[in-house]
Amino acid sequence: MTTRLSLAFMPLLDAAPMIVAQEMGFAAQEGLDLDLVSAPSWSSIRDMLVFGRVQAAHMLAPVPVATALGLGGAGAALSAASVTSVNGNILGVSNALAERLREAGHGFDLTDADSAGRALIAVAPTPLRIGVPFPFSMHAELLYYWLNALGLPAPQGVEIKTVPPPLMADAIAAGEIDAFCVGAPWGSIAVENGVGALLLAGSAIWSFAPEKVLCVRNDWADEEQALLARLIRAVWRAGRWLDQPDSRGLAAEILARPAYLNLDAEILDRGLTGRLTINGAGDQREVPDFLVFHDGAATFPWRSQAEWIAVQMAARTGLDRATAARLGRATFRSDIYRAAMKDTKADLPGASSKIEGGLADRTAVASDGGSLHLLRNEFFDRQIFDPKRFE
Amino acid sequence: MSSVPKAADRGLSIVIVETDRDRAMLIVDSLRDAGDFEIHVIAEVTGLARHIKQHNPDVVLIDIENPSRDMLEELALASGPLDRPVAMFVDKSAEGLTDAAIEAGVSAYVVDGMKPDRLKPILDAAVARFRMFQRIRMELAETKRALEERKVIDRAKGMLMKAKGLTEEEAYALLRKTAMDQGRKVADVAQALVTAAGLLS
């Protein structure tokens, strides 16, 4: 028997696991038929979840955390049942700023956050105005973290403003912002439209940043445990398929369709392969692990990831950090994820929390099956985040 | 709880975010009929949060389909003591109101703590107007689709007439028969033919 489920997504490259789950039959394998609802904004996705118009959503990882902290306008508690993508954001600058960076001798290698940040601060106006898609987003968190570490604290030195990705190019052209941080493919589209140049991959700031999650209402997760488990597995299999190099051409074609992203498959391919065109002159850069769907237990919702987000938000808004860490941790549901995956071949980590920023390289870790590797997990300033501090 | 108490004889202040001037005027008209409100229309989406702050409204109405809605989320962040908390209208006590608004495609942001009975006439008027917009939007999309299908079918007919020396009626009959045999829509068969011809030429 097939169960129909409504799932809202934003037309972004990292909606791929949800779309591929339906299109490549991973949902059908779990007896699910996904009604994929394309949404115009993150706030509308959140409302659709809260009011039960959809049962699940492609969501920014910080949204369930912010909701638990009482920030933003959500009216119901939300859970991240699974991470669906890691990394995938790109920072770009206006043509004017790009020119000044070039004159100052900056090489635009996309992967050195320290030198890119120092070069940007040296030539940027004060305050530096940067557009992000949503106030509660990994884009915003990475920018605050990066610039604060380099001595440009918000709000004195930098102003982070919300601009919907399709309007980012207009905002740069109108002089409303000097730079932007967006998910693929909108950085590449800004380059194609000739309004900006790419400066830095989000993964250069934190090499393993949880980007999007499979988000559901807490009460729905409690009521529909078996159904949610099927959805988690379908999306997990889609992510595994997506991370195989052979899949990417077909994935780009599926995502390019009018009902999904309605964009050129070639532009989508850049984000999927991590081979980016960075400026109007056609210069290219390759970014390792630019967008990860499966490798290194990418979909595991680590309690420590949510804690990192919660503690960053708390520091900014003046909330108690230990309380925020406790509330945030509870939104990344490694318990639900483990229960859903226990009868699959997925190799699950032994722990549900880890030190964030502590892996300089790909590393084998303790796991149920004994074959699990984690990817490099480092902050650009080599700080580590130990969740034990907040226990 | 608005930090700036409004005089009792003054209506609530409402900001409408709408880039289409005609639509904006229609909403303004229906709100005027519903009560004595101070109404501002913002048609420019760049710097939206800043513009709204300048008006310091009690209520913000915006189309759910408008991607700029995310900009309003900044307003929900009370970043300073002078900022008034603004929230999406999610008061469970007035669930009927909210559901009606969502269904009609209008989102309302209200100053936190505003009484639902003060909001009701505003939302009732807005909901009625947005329902009408939604109907028009659907009709327009349907008409556009029908027109496009007609164009493709005409082209496919023309190709068949030329290639096989058929009359227009015979060409259409052939398309229809093929569609029925394959369990597809006539427009889909026509589209396939036009696409294939484009590839071969």
TrEMBL record, chain B:
Keyword annotations: Phosphoprotein
Keyword Phosphoprotein: yes
Any Pfam family the entry gives: ANTAR
PTM-bearing positions, type 4-aspartylphosphate: D63
InterPro entries associated with the record: ANTAR, CheY-like_superfamily, Sig_transdc_resp-reg_antiterm, Sig_transdc_resp-reg_receiver, WH-like_DNA-bd_sf
Span of domain Response regulatory: 13-127
ANTAR domain boundaries: 133-194
UniProt xrefs under SMART domains: ANTAR
Record-linked SUPFAM superfamilies: CheY-like
Name recorded for this polypeptide: ANTAR domain-containing response regulator
